[in-house]
Amino acid sequence: MHIKEHFKSCPKCQSTAIKFDTKHFVCSECGFDFYINASAAVAVLITNAKGELLLTVRKFDPFKGTYDLPGGFVDINETVENAATREIKEELNLDITSLEYFCSFPNTYTYKEIDYYTLDMVFKAEIEDFTPLQANDDVSSIVFLSPKKIDTTAIGLTSIKAIVSKYIDSVS
Ligand SMILES: [Zn+2]
Prior knowledge:
Domain Nudix hydrolase: 37-170
Number of domains: 2
GO molecular function, one term: hydrolase activity
Structural class: alpha+beta
Pfam families: NUDIX
Order of helices and strands: EEEEEEEHEEEH
Distance between the termini: 38 Å
Mean pLDDT: 94
Strand order of the largest sheet: 7-4-9-8
InterPro entries: NUDIX_hydrolase-like_dom_sf (IPR015797), NUDIX_hydrolase_CS (IPR020084), NUDIX_hydrolase_dom (IPR000086)
Oligomer: single chain
Bound molecules: zinc ion
Number of strands: 10
Radius of gyration: 19 Å
Strand content: 35-45%
Shape: elongated
Protein name: NUDIX domain-containing protein
Low-confidence stretches: none
Number of helices: 2
CATH topology of the largest domain: Nucleoside Triphosphate Pyrophosphohydrolase
CATH architecture of the largest domain: Alpha-Beta Complex
């Protein structure tokens, strides 16, 4: 559900004369003006020595049980590179050796009936040592698949499906 459906009155003056105008909430009573921007998120492409891509299986909704890429939201005052490093440590217990920017995709991520507009920024990461690999945090399991064998319809999030498809095209 779009965020505008949850705002019934102005949070500053409580007037109901608040309107969502394409990108921002504007109150015609008190001038309250609040912008809704895309939330930055990061997704990471990791391959093993055989060239197989690491996919995670989502532990929670939205899209519980579907394939995903490791990653998550960028915290306030965090760089996207730090978010990639942090998420890979939290979700997979791996240390990134190097990062290379790949592409970005917009997405809508619905959580507890609120639509969040995200911008997924994608990196290819090199990992020297896979021995500490664990499925932690919001990851229920991990698979490595040859790009040729990936069924993109098993990926839940629209942007991740587009990213993995673009990656498959780039290596085939
Ligand atoms: Zn107001």
